[in-house]
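Minutes, project check-in

Agenda point 3 was the complex the collaborators sent over. CS summarized: two entities, 688 residues total, and the question is how they sit relative to each other. Sequences were read into the notes so everyone works from the same version.
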Amino acid sequence: MSRQLKKSSRGAARLSVLSAILLLAMALSAQQYIKSRYWNYYYPDVQVADFTDIVLQTIPTQIKGFVAGIFRITADEYMHIGPTKKVKQNFVAGSFAGNTEIMSLLELSVILEPTNMEMYAVMSHNLALYLNRFKDAIRLLHRGIRANRNSPDLHKLYGAAAYCYGFVKKPSFASHAEVEKNREIAVNYLNAAIQSYLKNEHRLTPEMQDDFANLQNYYVMKSRFLSDIGKKQEALATWQKVSEDRKESFLGHYFTMLQQKETALPDFPDDLLTPEYTALFQVSTIKPPYGASAAYRFWLIDPANLYYLALYARGFGAASLLAEDCPQHQTAMSAGAADKPFSEISDCGHDHSKQPVQHHVTVQHQHSHDHQHDHGEHEGHAHQHEQGEECPHCASAKSWKQAGTSVMLQALLMLAAAIVIRRLI
Amino acid sequence: MNFSAIRSRISCITAIAWYAFIEALRNRLFLGVFLLALPFAAAAWTVDVYQLGFQTRLVSDAGLTLISTLGLLVVLFFSLDQIIPDIEKRTVYFIFTRMPSRHTYMIGRFFGIVATLFCLHVFLAGLLVMIIKLRTGAWFNEIPVAGLIIFLKQSLLVSIVMLLAACTSKIITVSLSVLIYVIGHGLDIFRMLAEQSGNTIVAFLLDLAGIILPDFSLYETRIMVMHEIPAQTSALLILAFYTFTAIFFYLAVGGAILKRRDL
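CS then shared the predicted structure for the full assembly.
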């Protein structure tokens, strides 16, 4: 009896092991079939170069993309906050140029999501043009090119490489031979960018259009670099492909001079701009799509410090970029400033050359409650606003009172309830 | 209550808290949590791919996030090990025979976990401050203040876990604690949204919930640390007062439930 039981149990075990092997074989063959049949879904430009890449392949793409997104958002936040006050850092708030804090986060985001094309340009420009790490920048772009060989956005990486090579040495600061050598390489990258763009043009959706990395800009850059390396006729031929509206520029002026064979034609188009370089400045005209952050978040902080936080919340890093909040600047801009495109910048960072108005020292709040804040670092702002308009100073002061009162009320209520519970129960 | 009764109660609370603290320190999980901090501290160097130097903001931000996460792990895992196993193993009968009240037992257990949490925060915040000091030469006073605020927040969470552990099972305690933690962070936003959309009934209900539930959004430290803006002393004092009263409230409710519970 026992022998029979043993026999039957051994047979059942054998059967279950065989079934398990059969199921595993079926699962594996199905897996291989799916991957070979739909290979383009399963192997979209996967780059496996080292052990890290193998480990990363074990993490689901959604999770990697999600974490990479968090890193990118955090890097963006760091970029807007700017340098720390206690340690010397050579960058300003609101610009990625020279920002070292963002680089580790962006590198991690690129490792996790190598198919996201947006970060390569930012990182490579920062590395090559501001952080003196040109080779790292090019290596990063090559990594990106290898990981996105079939992407319709591939031209952006070639374009970024061309930009790095083209502008890492400038005629104003480097020898002409050095500039020519780099710009010759840049032309090769631009050719690759144009070729890639034209090859994938039918795959480019309107959402993929880029203000910088587009065909017109590639032609503009190529014609400029070709002219710089002495291939003037090729440059002129490329310039013909540029649309008419883009031709109204200093470069257009240079090519007109070239066509007219003017004797005063300089070697580089940059030389035409030399007199204007000293007075060149740029004012941000970007309007943030959001208002100040929720006031309750700031209740731990002194409202006097919130002026600088307001700058951050509005999406501007440096006070000097907040031109639209400066009434003098607005007046100056509106009063027909077109006659002098490159004006001089004043101490507060704005252009007040058109209207010599005396700077006010205090920030005036014309509300039902009158109080004044001093802003020593940014004295030129008569910060007046209408009744009901959102003001970070007043919102924070209100939030401090409101939050403090409600916190105290809740605390007292809880204390009373606890005492009652302890006494009665 | 005379002086000797208060003294005996305090000695009972101290004894329970001390043993709860020792128990937590001997736990391998706690050692693991401590050891986990070391590779993360080393990450400050390893993430510097382009040899750009020590990045203060990144390290302080990531460090405080790590402190908060590890503290949360300690709160959830160690608070659960305080009351429920005692009830399940019946050791609670032995303790209650030597305790003046069940409230005392609960307060003792609470202080045990708070002491563990305090040690963790002092170690991790100290490590973070020292790393930054050694690499940059500057003292970042915001980090200890932020550590203190995180400690207050997690102490409040411990009291909530204690309250839930006194009346429910382990799985429900964990689920409800996480739920209250999440709601506590977003309650203010929900209230604001309800008010903005003009839904007065929902806003009123959320206002009512806001009286009983803790408001964890008050313990927001990121803006303070990231922008290096010092916290106001008065705000910190109010926050400490709020935390102590809320802890007292939740422990009183938990004690009352434990007192009524038929063990």
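Noted in discussion: Chain B has one domain: 3-260.
Follow-up: revisit at the next meeting once the mutant set is ready.
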